[in-house]
Amino acid sequence: MAGMEGSEGGGRKKVVVVGGGIGGSLVAKSLQFTADVVLIDPKEYFEITWASLRAMVEPSVAERSVIEHVDYFSNGRIVTSAAVDIAERGVVTEDGNLFPYDYLVVATGHRDSVPRSRRERIAQYQDEFEKIKSSNSILIIGGGPTGVELAGEIAVDFPEKKVTLVHRGSRLLEFIGPKASRKTLDWLTAKKVEVLLGQSVDLGSASDGLYRTFDGETIRADCHFLCIGKPVGSSWLKETLLGGSLDDRGRLMVDENMRVKGHKNVFAIGDITDELKQGYLAHAHAEVTVKNLKVLMSGGKGPKLATHKPGSAMALVSLGRKEGVAQFPFMTISGCIPGKIKSGDLFIGKTRKKLGLKSN
Ligand SMILES: Cc1cc2nc3c(=O)[nH]c(=O)nc-3n(C[C@H](O)[C@H](O)[C@H](O)COP(=O)(O)OP(=O)(O)OC[C@H]3O[C@@H](n4cnc5c(N)ncnc54)[C@H](O)[C@@H]3O)c2cc1C
């Protein structure tokens, strides 16, 4: 039987935010002085995901990009556990507690197997850096944004190392258009990264620095990094109150106010929703949700509910410290211009400011 938690709180409404990633952290921070907010996350920190590949080649970056929840969310309750169930009465966590809510925000984008504490996460980046530094040849498995950005970081910071990138699909960055894929392939090839498309590495057969693809190619590498896409963090929702609101790809279907279809007091934001998986959208969803919760909590006396309209696919992928590839609604460009927008600071300062923190 789950223990009932957090039922105190005077006249303020109870908002439970599940997931302290890009979207959930912003909601928790923005509502902490308006409602009794509980933030549920299996780790004690928020992480700027798009800085993670830079942190692997420059571990000090993680000091700015891995942020304790308590640093931006000081006036609420942080629960370090995973949510495992949602019922009419509240959210149940893995450690057996129940958190009742008036309003619920689901923001469980992707569940990664990362350490629980910030200190351990920063140490993990240091280990990855040492692994890169001590290897002459590196195999990267996966040609989505993570694999491509990691290849770019290593190629620029360690040009003497042999980097091989193996991707199962027929083109890199399949989540955006073919033009961006071509420009990325050209850039990586010019930086002497060997790119193998349409191939999968058989990790089971790897031994003594020799890797084989299922097509019989062999790759010599001192180490490898697995950069394959992670499934959305929604499997735990199937047997819950929200199970009927998942689409056939396991994403929560939301209306234009960011409310989960069929549930007036439940919102979903970020990668868990049926929209493109991008952090700027998770932020946009969070901002609409915060506005709407404020309206609803004031008894609906304020303005009408805010709406979010899905836009065209936009993406920026960094290629090392100065260059990048960008897909905007009407054009795709690569080189220094997208590099200037993203690749220098990787939006770390901007994201920290959104959470009310100093940019450095
Ligand atoms: C390499 C890389 C580069 C990227 N570059 C960009 C970019 O330049 N621009 C851009 O806009 N986007 C970029 N993205 C995409 C962006 O990171 C995601 O869209 C964004 O993180 C989604 O935010 P979110 O809040 O939905 O989920 P996440 O940030 O994934 O957060 C999910 C949170 O939920 C928690 N969680 C999971 N399961 C549970 C559970 N059961 N109970 C409680 N908590 C749970 C997790 O611990 C995590 O804290 C990039 C992604 C990657 C990997």
From TrEMBL:
The keyword Plastid is annotated on this UniProt entry: no
GO cellular component: cytoplasm
Pfam families: Pyr_redox_2
Highest taxon listed in the record's lineage: Eukaryota
Keyword Flavoprotein found: yes
Molecular-function GO terms, alphabetical: electron-transferring-flavoprotein dehydrogenase activity; flavin adenine dinucleotide binding
Keywords carried by this UniProt record: FAD, Flavoprotein, Oxidoreductase
FAD/NAD(P)-binding domain location: 13-285
Role summary: Putative FAD-dependent oxidoreductase.
Family per similarity comment: Belongs to the FAD-dependent oxidoreductase family.
Name assigned to this protein: FAD/NAD(P)-binding domain-containing protein
